[in-house]
Design a protein that fits this description.
With 119 residues, the chain is an alpha+beta fold. It is 26% helix and 40% strand. Strand 2 (16-27) and strand 3 (32-43) form a beta hairpin.
């Protein structure tokens, strides 16, 4: 059975993922290695995959016009960073303080520039 390992680049469709599979090939004339990427539409029965996940797909019967692959398993999950959760963390408001200090620092630079431009 033919299987590939690739990265999920789209999970917008219902029960369908788009997987990018990279392969290296050698150009015969120049003996140089180049990377080629193929994209496959695969069936994800439970909508488990998210963008960035590394998955294994295998060939199956045609499921639609473009979908002839099935997702076998998820090898690695992509970590998703939530900016709002990071700001709400128990850092004691350091994120807001550092943002405020950077604004005042930039303001002093701007005032110094305006003063030197007036000379």
């Amino acid at each position: 059975m033919k299987t590939f390992i690739g990265k999920v680049i789209s999970d917008k469709a219902n029960k369908t993922i788009l997987v990018a599979v990279d392969r290296w090939m050698v150009v015969p004339k120049y003996k140089k290695k180049i990377k080629r990427t193929s994209k496959f539409m695969a069936h994800d029965e439970n909508n488990d995959c998210r963008m960035g996940d590394i998955v294994r797909i295998h060939i199956s019967r045609p499921l639609s016009k473009n979908k002839t692959w099935r997702m076998t398993d998820i090898l690695r999950r992509e970590r998703v960073y939530d900016a709002e959760a990071g700001a709400r963390s128990s850092d004691g408001g350091l994120a807001e303080q550092s943002a405020a200090s950077s604004h005042t620092h930039l303001g002093s630079i701007d005032r110094g520039f305006a003063a030197s431009a007036a000379l």
